[in-house]
Amino acid sequence: MAGDHRTLREALRIRESDITDETVWRQRRRVLAAFGAIPALGLSACAEAEAPPAPTAPPPSPAAVAAGFSTDETLTREIDATTYNNFYEFGTGKADPSRAARTLRTSPWQVEVSGECARPGTLELNDLLRGFLPEERTYRLRCVEGWSMVIPWLGVPLGEVLRRFEPTSNAKYVAFTTLADRAQMPGMRYRSIDWPYREGLRIDEAMHPLTLLATGVYGKPLPQQNGAPLRLLVPWKYGFKGIKSIVAIRFVERMPPTAWNDLQPREYGFFANVNPDVDHPRWSQASERRISGTEGKLFANRIATRPFNGYAEHVASMYAGMDLRRWY
Ligand SMILES: Nc1nc2c(c(=O)[nH]1)N[C@H]1C(S)=C(S)[C@@H](COP(=O)(O)O)O[C@H]1N2
Ligand SMILES: [Mo]
């Protein structure tokens, strides 16, 4: 895995003009193709396996770290981030999604954008993302359950995508919906969440430059278990805000209902900003198990949880005047 690890770091950190390694180039090209930026190529797994090992990755740029767009914390291994998942449509076990979501059909994929905007429409994924180049964002992901990861995503700032639809002044919130297809999603037969999975953001949160619509991870297109082909990431909030496999985005005037808040309003708030001072009713949120490292097994360190998951300097001002103890 050590070799793989270097390759993926290289894939994410190197500048386009510096790319010489085949694997890196092919991976990036696949991701670009997923954005409609360039045509997809037929690539064999063989060609990738034969690629020479990549040199050690350069560290993330200080500017990217300062902006919150990257971090120099140890990355979670790709194998852990893609086999330890929450995606209840495919079961409630951590290993269920990586097994059961393989059959999720992610192409063709349409996203309906509607509500308080001048240009609503239902778009093919390629059209939704046309003209955008994927950006690399290495974010901390803090699950409300008390574990965390550091994951290198590829995606587009949500706000830039939303602006094209020209939201009106009535667009105070944005509501998101996951695909709900019982034929493809075996976990939907269980009575847990009131399907479809739904999430929402206030409009300023949706427009914040840290808020990402991800289509890739570790230099590759998103695997199904991580929310292919399109998922949300709001790194200063608990992971459940990061809704997967999005099929609908709606601009709305009122705070929209959300899946976890509907299920347990006392345990899961709408804002759900990471806050070590506000415990979940059933457990402490003061610390977290960081799943990262290259030990060759799932390796977890207990570390202190930070306010807004370490993104306070970038986002705390949005909540000035709000009671943060209440809006967990
Ligand atoms: N549609 C949908 N989105 C979802 C979930 C889910 O069950 N269904 N789980 C959420 C939770 S609780 C977390 S922690 C993250 C996990 O993302 P990951 O598996 O890519 O790490 O996805 C979030 N998005
Ligand atoms: Mo979570």
Automatic annotation (TrEMBL):
Gene3D superfamilies: Oxidoreductase, molybdopterin-binding domain (3.90.420.10). SUPFAM superfamilies: Oxidoreductase molybdopterin-binding domain. Binds 1 Mo-molybdopterin (Mo-MPT) cofactor per subunit. GO terms for biological process: protein repair. Its cofactor is Mo-molybdopterin. Its EC number is 1.8.5.-. InterPro entries: MsrP, OxRdtase_Mopterin-bd_dom, OxRdtase_Mopterin-bd_sf. It catalyses: L-methionyl-[protein] + a quinone + H2O = L-methionyl-(S)-S-oxide-[protein] + a quinol; L-methionyl-[protein] + a quinone + H2O = L-methionyl-(R)-S-oxide-[protein] + a quinol. The keyword Membrane does not apply. Part of the MsrPQ system that repairs oxidized periplasmic proteins containing methionine sulfoxide residues (Met-O), using respiratory chain electrons. Thus protects these proteins from oxidative-stress damage caused by reactive species of oxygen and chlorine generated by the host defense mechanisms. MsrPQ is essential for the maintenance of envelope integrity under bleach stress, rescuing a wide series of structurally unrelated periplasmic proteins from methionine oxidation. Heterodimer of a catalytic subunit (MsrP) and a heme-binding subunit (MsrQ). This is Protein-methionine-sulfoxide reductase catalytic subunit MsrP.
